[in-house]
Specification:
The structure holds two protein chains of two kinds. Chain A is α+β, with helices and mostly antiparallel strands. Chain A contains eight helices and ten strands.
Chain lengths: 355, 181
Amino acid sequence: MHDPSRPSICVPCRLAAIAAVVGCAAAAFAWTAGWLTPKRLNAPHVIDTFETNYGIHPGFRRNHAKGLCVEGWFDSNGNGERVSRAAVFAPQQRTPVIGRFAIPGSNPSAPDASVPVRSLALLFQLQDGEQWRTGMNSAPLFPVSTPREFYEQLVASKPDPATGKPDPATLDAFNRAHPNTQPFRQWIAAHPPSTSFANSSFYSVNAFVATDAAGAAHAVRWEVVPDAPYEPATAAQKAQPDFLSRDLDTRLAAGPLHWHLVLTVAAPGDPTDDATRQWPDTRERIDAGTLVLQNATPQRVGQCRDVNYDPTVLPNGLAPSDDPLLAARSAAYAVSFNRRTHEEAFAQPRTDTHR
Amino acid sequence: MNRDSLHFNAAARLLHWLMAVLILTMLFVGVGMVSTVSRLHDALLALHRPLGVTLLVLVVIRAAIRVTHRTPPLPADMPPLQRVAAKASHYALYAMMLAMPLIGWSMLSAGGYPVVLARGVQLPPIAPHNVTLYAVLRSAHTWVAFALYATVLLHVAAALFHAWIRRDGVFASMARGQRRA
């Protein structure tokens, strides 16, 4: 370029300026993605830690890996409308449900008695394509309040290769450093697991915000309360690694199983951002209707297999609260779902039958 | 030569700069929301879907304007290789701008997720609930996003090369309209 009518320029300076612009833009992207900040807690870290602790079981959920699918429906009695305008709570409304019973842990063939907690996940398929997904535990509260604490607890729970169990001293140290784990541990100690999925209550654990038809917001938690009475699991049951699925098959052969869906409404001042704290027993409880479950199928063929029970998938009239665990559950479940579906799609055919 | 054709028309310029802002926002929202387990994850995800649909509508309008209107010619003295690179990168940008929201929408459909844009507003699925398809689309969504950002950076570098070094009017053709004498 020798156009004498144009001022001469410092070409290397300008090339450097272009490189600087592009370099800064690339760095900003890398920072946003977390590639420059390995200490920022992200969902892959959480899921990687499950895999480090417990190995990779291709095609399975990274947590609550052992489970089975059920189907059923929810019959609303209309009482839920007092706090939520969600169509699922309309009077005389029947909503199909895809459910999944499971036990916590990454091992899809763990013995049922190896953990004191069970879970029930539900997907309510509303008429207009809306969905309500919830993953509930048989304990009403959670051991930790924040994603960071959950991650640290997971790290502290890493099994010792020698014993296959977490190092008690490390876990003790974690618990001492996190006194908010105590209510959960006390609850577990006071509530031995029951004989069956069918006589377990399951709790949303986290709080949510329900919005009624007038637009008023109400902090709620929910639970499903079984019709079948509680009985503690027997020693003979606990000796059988799959007693929960066998028991469920036996009971379902005699007919569908029923729970009441109960919404507990917070009073002003009740914590909505801390799953380690229960609300007082005196809070209003709304029996919103009946959950009916039947048709248990192994998860490798059941409808629940291809569902990510992300608790932030909610219908109009329900929303996440300020509980920081909810976003972390959403993010971590997505990574688990992405990895297991990727394994389904690209892995070699497997002979594993426990899916 | 028609003097006006040295600059993109006003609608094309408006869409270019509007989409430039939205696409950069979208790429940072997308890569940021999967980088954290904080509540920012949910907030960014809630922004990601409506923004994606907005960009899908905008790219369709923009493509229609692009094929129905003349575009300014590249400078006659541009080397052939640069001309090829310019054309190819613009085709690639259009293809990825169109593909990204469609991959995102069909990926959510294949994953069995409801495609919620805002409270009570949702889109129908455009793909069957099939996790094998989901896995392919989910990977594609990430890799096409990286490719799109890389192409955007290339585009920025080339635009600045035209503006600061070649000083041949190519940058001005998108930066502003024709100056009146």
